[in-house]
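Batch job 17 of 40 flagged for manual review because the log was empty.
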Amino acid sequence: QVNVVESGGGSVQTGGSLTLSCVASGRISRIYAMFWYRERPGKERETVAGVSMSGNPHYLESVKGRFTLTKETANNKHYLQMNMLNPDDTAVYYCKMAIATTGTGIGRDYWGKGTLVTVSS
């Protein structure tokens, strides 16, 4: 079994910064990729950032230059540094990791339960 947990959400004013963290635990054999998604009020879930273990991060156009995804592979963690936040960034942010578990070696996506980011004007 694998658990994925996000943390670091909160409330900030426009122009502020937050760093979200995501950590996976359990019977992890290998992590293939790490992602951040968000659901803004009244909108569908969208991919904010993602990275494979061997590649460079890619970003949603609207967050390029403001958000940075970094990996801490040795500890099964990754982070989303969010700068210059604005009210349009208000959302529940979800972490997803593509993980193969020990024993089966079969990979699948594991999601966290989300963390709320609120940006006020």
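Reviewer: the log was empty due to a logging misconfiguration, but the result itself is present. The radius of gyration is 14 Å. Unflagging and moving on to job 18.
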